[in-house]
Amino acid sequence: MAVGEAHGGLPVPSGAGEAIRAWRARRRVSQLDLALRTGVSTKHISFIETGRSTPTRDMITRLAEQLDIPLRDRNKLLLLNGYAPAYPERDLDDPELESVRGALHQVLRGHEPYPAALVDRVWNLVDANESLALFTVDVSAELLEGPVNVLRLSLHPDGMAPRIDNLPEWRAHVLDRLRRQIDATDDPELRDLHSELRTYPCVTSGHDMSAMDRRSIAVPLRYRSERGRLTFVSTTAVFGTPLDVTVSELAVEAFFPADAATMRALAGGVTGAGEPAFGDPV
């Protein structure tokens, strides 16, 4: 099988074996390590990657698990070898995902009065709690039209950027995090998003632009709101053992107060925020 143009420093695979080799290279795993993890010979791994041996459905699944390949791409590997996809991809409003929707609703609402958002694999907003409206004051209406991309919203000059006091620091954090996600997934939509975000000017608010405090435990978001200057740290929560493509690509981004002043400012909730106009909630 022929190998296509170079993409991101790795060959573009044209078959299941080449795709497995590309993922192995991306994960920086040797054939020997992969063989030991899966309990097969290095020779067999080599034969699969070069197309001399056709992997079974079970072998593709085992290799994909050991290489931590996203479920969406595991299905693609199976299809490349003529097998049916192993993982369903349901809409979030599917009746079978009712328990998932309930859990997500509980997490988002339970995080009040602090902002929290549910995003998909390319950082499009799926749902949010009421407090996320704290970040949409003065934001251009165009940026709030679906699908709303939360990274675009945060760095766009017509979005949150003018209110972020430590914009250079926050921008570097966002771009670095996105780059690491691209390295892990090789997702072309994320590549396009990264290229777009890099073109945005790094406007400053004229406030605290000092270098990051090395005593900090995480990169903070320093945001000027109608309630004063707020400082947040964020966490990301995902489902631990998803078996559905849609569920595997969901993440809750939750913001926590990083100081007592922010905690006091939001103690009474986000008055007048209302339900964010980001489309239908889950």
UniProtKB/TrEMBL annotation:
Family matches, as Gene3D superfamilies: 3.30.450.180, lambda repressor-like DNA-binding domains (1.10.260.40)
GO MF annotation: an example: DNA binding
Domain of life: Bacteria
Ranges for domain HTH cro/C1-type: 20-74
SMART domains in the cross-refs: HTH_XRE
InterPro entries in the cross-refs: Cro/C1-type_HTH, Lambda_DNA-bd_dom_sf, MLTR_LBD
PROSITE patterns named among the record's database cross-references: HTH_CROC1
The protein's name in its UniProt record: Helix-turn-helix transcriptional regulator
Organism, as annotated: Haloechinothrix aidingensis
Lineage: Bacteria, Bacillati, Actinomycetota, Actinomycetes, Pseudonocardiales
